[in-house]
């Protein structure tokens, strides 16, 4: 299944993408939760019920009539791994890590598959893109052995780990430079594992204004999705709706000669095989003080 969060007629809820439309689960199965995190937390019973109604044409809405939102609007955790493709390590001039390198992206950076990405007023010249495979946790889990890690993945998405490079380099945690508002586009939906097969055999690509910048395959991940789950859950629990960014291949703007940072008006498109694509426009931030 392709699980989506969408807005139609001013109301946001979840559904199943079916061809050129979406089955509105609030109509097809009104007893199910209407937000993705609660739906995933409801477990296998909720997924089974959703599968049973996915061909309910009475609840069918054309995709052209809805706005696709970030599949998980309010993840509890957004975790991202650094230096996880060999070619990306080579272009940065860094050494391959002995251990997994993790940082937080604050959940409020999450953005939709077509949402505008703000060019920060405090850093207008160092905004970068990173095409990444993301996965969503579907079960509460701790101390998960690698061979069972596939059991806790609800599905996969495209992601863009938007990075403010000068702010990123100011702190060894990288959190500030990775967490600006709107700097976590994801989507266009969550594709369940049965439709993906091997998540470590997917082409991943990125274009800026139609110019291809990144082209790789998830088989080149140094620490794959299952390694990541096994490692993270040694330290803390993961919960339904947590979002994991799995790393980016070579071709990022900071490593280009001359550097290829994105500017206002640029369009960044990321596509992953068997999942789909996200496309986001860079727009200048209009800074305003907010105190409420």
As for the CATH topology of the largest domain, it is Fumarylacetoacetate hydrolase, domain 2
- CA-based shape: globular
Report the order of strands and helices.
EEEHHHEEEHEEEEEEEHHEHEEHEEE
Question: Spans of 5+ residues with little confidence (pLDDT < 50)?
Answer: none
Class from secondary-structure proportions: alpha+beta
Distance between the termini: 40 Å
C-alpha-based Rg, rounded: 18 Å
CATH architecture of the largest domain, by name, is Alpha-Beta Complex
Quaternary state reads: single chain
How many domains in all?
Answer: 2
Plain-language structure description:
With 292 residues, the protein is of the alpha+beta class. The protein folds into two domains: 2-68, SH3 type barrels (Roll), CATH 2.30.30; 78-284, Fumarylacetoacetase-like, C-terminal domain (Fumarylacetoacetate hydrolase, domain 2, Alpha-Beta Complex). It has eight helices and 19 strands. The strands form three sheets. Strands 1, 2, 3, 4, 5, 6, 7, 8, 11, 12, 14 and 17 form a twelve-stranded mixed β-sheet that branches. Strands 9-19-18-15-16 form a five-stranded mixed β-sheet, with no helix packed on it. A two-stranded antiparallel ribbon has the order 10-13. A hairpin with a 2-residue loop joins strand 2 (11-18) and strand 3 (21-24). The longest helix has 9 residues, at 44-52. The relative contact order is 0.19. The mean pLDDT is 96.
Quick structural overview:
The chain has about 290 residues and is of the alpha+beta class. About 15% of the residues lie in helices and about 35% in strands. The protein has two domains: about 1-70, Fumarylacetoacetase, N-terminal domain (SH3 type barrels, Roll), CATH 2.30.30; about 80-285, Fumarylacetoacetate hydrolase, domain 2, CATH 3.90.850.10.
């Amino acid at each position: 299944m392709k699980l989506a969060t969408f807005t139609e007629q001013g109301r946001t809820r979840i559904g199943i993408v079916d061809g050129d439309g979406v089955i509105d689960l609030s109509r097809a199965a009104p007893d199910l939760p209407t937000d993705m995190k609660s739906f995933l937390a409801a477990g296998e019973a909720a997924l089974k019920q959703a599968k049973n109604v996915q061909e309910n044409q009475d609840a069918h809405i054309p995709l052209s009539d809805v706005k696709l939102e970030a599949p998980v609007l309010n993840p509890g955790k957004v975790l991202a791994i650094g230096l996880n493709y060999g070619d990306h390590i080579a272009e940065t001039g860094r050494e391959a890590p002995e251990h997994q390198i993790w940082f937080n992206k604050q959940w409020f950076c999450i953005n939709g598959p077509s949402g505008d990405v703000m060019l920060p007023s405090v850093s207008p010249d160092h905004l970068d893109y990173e095409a990444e495979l993301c996965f969503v946790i579907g079960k509460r889990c701790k101390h998960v052995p690698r061979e069972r890690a596939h059991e806790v993945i609800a599905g996969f998405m495209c992601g863009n780990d938007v990075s403010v490079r000068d702010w990123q380099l100011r702190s060894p945690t990288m959190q500030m430079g990775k967490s600006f508002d709107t700097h976590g586009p994801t989507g266009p939906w969550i594709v369940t594992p049965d439709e993906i097969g091997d998540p470590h055999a997917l082409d991943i690509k990125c274009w800026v204004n139609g110019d291809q910048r990144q082209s790789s395959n998830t088989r080149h991940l140094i620490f794959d999705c299952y390694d990541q789950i096994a490692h993270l859950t040694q330290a803390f629990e993961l919960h339904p709706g947590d979002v994991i960014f799995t790393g980016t291949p070579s071709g990022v703007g900071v490593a280009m000669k001359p550097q290829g940072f994105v500017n206002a008006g640029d369009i960044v498109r990321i596509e992953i095989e068997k999942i789909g694509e996200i496309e986001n426009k860079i727009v200048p931030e209009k800074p305003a003080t907010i105190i409420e």
